Amino acid sequence: MRTTAVAHPNIALVKYWGKADPKRNIPAVGSISITLDTLTTTTSLEFDPDLDGDRFSLNGKSDSPSLHRVKHCLALFRRRGAEVPHAKVDSTNNFPTAAGLASSASGFAALVVAVNQAAGSNMARSELAGLARECSGSAARSLFGGYVELELAEDGERTETRTILQADQWPLEVVIAVTDVGPKAVGSTEGMALTERTSPYYRSWVETSTTDLAEARAAIAALDFERLAEVSEQSCLKMHAVALAARPGLLYWNGTTIDCLHQIRELRGRGTPVFFTVDAGPQVKAICEPGVTDRVRHALGQIPGVVELLSCGLGEGAAVVDP
Ligand code: PMV
What we know:
This protein has 323 residues and is of the alpha+beta class. It folds into two domains: 2-169, Ribosomal Protein S5, domain 2, CATH 3.30.230.10; 173-312, 2-Layer Sandwich (Alpha-Beta Plaits), CATH 3.30.70. 37% of the residues lie in helices and 24% in strands. The protein is built from eight helices and 16 strands. It has helices at 64-79, 103-119, 125-135, 188-198, 202-221, 225-244, 255-269, 293-301, and strands at 2-7, 10-14, 19-21, 26-27, 31-35, 41-47, 55-58, 61-62, 87-93, 147-152, 159-165, 173-178, 274-277, 284-288, 308-312, 319-321. The longest helix has 20 residues, at 202-221. The protein is globular and about 60 Å long. The relative contact order is 0.19. (3R)-3-hydroxy-3-methyl-5-(phosphonooxy)pentanoic acid binds at residues 12, 15-17, 31, 102, 104-105, 136-138, 188-189, 279-280.
């Protein structure tokens, strides 16, 4: 029996960067994100006790570098007592993989939902989010739709993830300017570890995250675009600042990335409701109010080096679909 699940990437507005517990993958800071709609990971899973080991393919090709992460995810279910035989897992993204578009988030969100269904383990969504987080910190957020917060529990042992505002209550739109389709130079886990070890700004990055979270939460509750724009851009620039100050400095941007940031600032200065965010890669995400997407696409499309523009709205959390 094949089980298929779909999940969408999410984009953090208040960023996660740094781990409190690398072993259990507990983040050092909470985060707030939006889940996207049209970008999709579709994962099919089939248990086969006769297989000599787990198999994983990504976009039709056997993917051995990611296999150990898939195995780890299946092992987490087994450790919780779920009946999980060897599995054949096939995952497909309809967007560029591993280029700072959070494919690991949608990938692990789809995987935990598929395993839960196939194994009949009946775990609550919040528990599945915890398992997804152990595989990829940002994946917990793709279990949920709309505006999502990942909070650290007081005891530092757990995280809680939930929707704080539904997508249709504030249907912002996102334009992604792809400036490079190659895989990122330094993966997020490695980049975070280097930042923690060597960046002199790491402590203040962690300390100031709680005020950013509170402000973003308030801006979202009030549907206050300007306030969300300011706190999101600051969180993004702070994340890159702390990473830039590592040794050797982590420079995820290219020249086109910076041109896009200037263009977005200029658009907002002239009254277009749009702001930017950038993750551990060179792509720029422009978040805009409905109705201005075409203007934003047009402006970003003029910038030399922008190789592709993707548009999306806000979407739902990971779910099993009919085969
Ligand atoms: O989930 P990871 O390990 O790929 O880390 C995600 C880190 C950022 O995308 C840069 C920020 C975030 O909160 O998504």
